[in-house]
C-alpha cells in the first residue's frame, strides 16, 4: 500500500511517522515535484495539479480539513486536479467539534453578557451597568446542521439557550427547532438575536450573509462567522453595523486570508477578528480517522466522510 502526503504548512515528518505507526503495512512518502510513482491513497491540502492529475488508480483522496471547498475550487480552475471517479473524503470532527464548541461559546457568552460593550466602556472610562439579556429573549440561530453545527447546538441547549438551526435538508437535533430549505430561511431568521454561521462553502451558500439577510434578524443582532469568508459580503456587514441592524460581529474567516493590514475590520469597534483558528486539524485525531477509513476501504466497507462533489460537501 502506497500513501502520498502533501500539505504546504504541516510538519510532513509528523504525518509520515504517525501514519506509518497506524498503518505499518503502508509505504508513506511526501510528494515532491516529478513524483509519478504509483499510489493507492493521497492525503492533501491545496495540492499542485500535477500531484493528482492522471492518478485514476487512487482508491481515495483525503482532504486534510473539515471543508473541501478549496480543493473543489482547484478542480474547477484546473480540471484534473481531482481524478474522475476517485472518492474524495473529508475529516469529520477529529477534535474540531470541541474546538468549535469552545470558540462559539466564548463569543456567545461575550455577547450575551455584553462584555463587548463593557470593553468599549472601559476604553472610555465609563462606569455604567447595562441591562442584562435574558435567555428567553435571546434566540440563537445556527446556519449549518452538520457535525460541527450539531455539536455547537447541543452545548448551547445544555446551557439553557433557545436554539434553532437551518440547513439544506431536514435535520433532527434534540431540543432544537429545525428549519430547512430556502423557503424556510425567513422564518428561521425572524427573531434570531445571535446568528452563527457554520455552513459548508458551496455555490449555493456563497454570499449568503448579505444585508438583506441581516435585516431579517432581530434588531441589534449579533453575528459569528466561523465557516468560510466566502459566505459573508464584507461591505454589507459594515453597512449593517453602521446602520444598527447588527450590534457586533465575531469573524474567524475572511474572503482573503491573511486579512489585509488596511482592512476596516481591524479597527471597527464592533468587529472582533481572529486568524482562522476556531477549529484546526489535530494531527493525532485526524490520522486515527484516516487510518480507520483506509482500513474500511481495503475491507470493502464504506468509509466516513465521503464527499458528494456535486453538493460540495
TrEMBL record:
Q: What is its EC number?
A: 1.1.1.79, 1.1.1.81
- Name of the molecule in the record: Glyoxylate/hydroxypyruvate reductase A
Q: Where in the cell is it found?
A: Cytoplasm
Keyword annotations of the record: Cytoplasm, NAD, NADP, Oxidoreductase, Pyruvate
Active-site residues annotated for this sequence: 228, 276
Functional summary from the UniProt entry: Catalyzes the NADPH-dependent reduction of glyoxylate and hydroxypyruvate into glycolate and glycerate, respectively.
Pinpoint the D-isomer specific 2-hydroxyacid dehydrogenase NAD-binding domain residues. 105-278
The keyword NAD appears for this protein: yes
Question: What InterPro entries does the entry give?
Answer: D-isomer_DH_NAD-bd, GhrA_Enterobacterales, NAD(P)-bd_dom_sf
GO cellular component terms attached to this protein's record: cytoplasm
What does the organism's lineage look like at the top? Bacteria, Pseudomonadati, Pseudomonadota, Gammaproteobacteria, Enterobacterales
Q: GO MF annotations for this entry?
A: glyoxylate reductase (NADPH) activity; hydroxypyruvate reductase (NADH) activity; hydroxypyruvate reductase (NADPH) activity; NAD binding
- Record flagged with keyword Lyase: no
Q: What class of enzyme is it?
A: oxidoreductase
HAMAP family listed in its UniProt record = 2_Hacid_dh_C_GhrA (MF_01666)
What is catalyzed by this enzyme?
glycolate + NADP(+) = glyoxylate + NADPH + H(+); (R)-glycerate + NADP(+) = 3-hydroxypyruvate + NADPH + H(+); (R)-glycerate + NAD(+) = 3-hydroxypyruvate + NADH + H(+)
Species of origin reads Chimaeribacter arupi
> Major location, coarse class?
cytoplasm
Determine the domain of life of the protein's source: Bacteria
As for family, the record states: Belongs to the D-isomer specific 2-hydroxyacid dehydrogenase family. GhrA subfamily.
Amino acid at each position: 500500500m502506497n500513501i502520498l502526503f502533501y500539505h504546504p504548512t504541516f510538519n510532513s515528518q509528523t504525518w509520515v511517522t504517525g501514519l506509518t505507526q497506524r498503518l505499518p503495512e503502508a509505504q508513506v512518502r511526501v510528494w515532491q515535484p516529478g513524483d509519478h510513482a504509483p499510489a493507492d491513497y493521497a492525503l492533501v491540502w491545496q495540492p499542485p495539479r500535477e500531484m493528482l492529475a492522471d492518478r485514476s488508480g487512487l482508491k481515495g483522496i483525503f482532504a486534510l480539513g473539515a471543508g473541501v471547498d478549496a480543493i473543489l475550487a482547484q478542480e474547477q480552475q484546473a480540471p484534473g486536479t481531482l481524478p474522475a471517479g476517485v472518492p474524495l473524503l473529508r475529516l469529520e470532527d477529529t477534535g474540531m467539534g470541541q474546538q468549535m464548541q469552545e470558540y462559539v461559546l466564548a463569543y456567545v457568552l461575550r455577547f450575551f453578557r455584553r462584555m463587548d460593550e463593557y470593553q468599549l466602556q472601559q476604553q472610555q472610562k465609563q462606569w455604567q451597568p447595562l441591562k442584562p439579556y435574558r435567555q428567553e429573549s435571546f434566540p440563537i440561530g445556527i446556519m449549518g446542521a452538520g457535525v460541527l453545527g450539531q455539536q455547537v447546538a447541543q452545548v448551547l441547549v445544555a446551557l439553557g439557550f433557545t436554539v434553532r438551526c437551518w440547513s439544506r435538508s431536514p435535520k433532527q437535533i434534540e431540543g432544537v427547532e429545525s428549519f430547512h430549505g430556502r423557503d424556510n430561511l425567513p422564518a428561521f431568521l425572524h427573531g434570531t438575536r445571535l446568528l452563527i454561521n457554520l455552513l459548508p462553502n458551496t455555490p449555493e451558500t456563497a454570499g449568503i450573509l448579505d444585508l438583506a439577510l441581516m435585516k431579517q434578524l432581530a434588531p441589534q443582532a449579533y453575528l459569528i462567522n466561523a465557516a468560510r469568508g466566502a459566505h459573508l459580503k464584507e461591505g454589507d456587514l459594515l453597512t449593517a453595523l453602521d446602520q444598527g441592524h447588527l450590534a457586533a460581529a465575531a469573524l474567524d474567516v475572511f474572503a482573503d486570508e491573511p486579512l489585509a493590514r488596511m482592512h476596516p475590520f481591524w479597527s471597527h469597534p464592533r468587529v472582533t477578528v481572529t486568524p482562522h483558528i476556531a477549529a484546526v486539524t489535530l494531527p493525532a485525531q485526524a490520522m486515527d480517522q484516516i487510518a480507520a477509513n483506509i482500513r474500511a476501504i481495503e475491507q470493502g466497507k464504506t468509509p466516513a466522510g465521503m464527499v458528494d462533489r456535486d453538493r460540495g460537501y
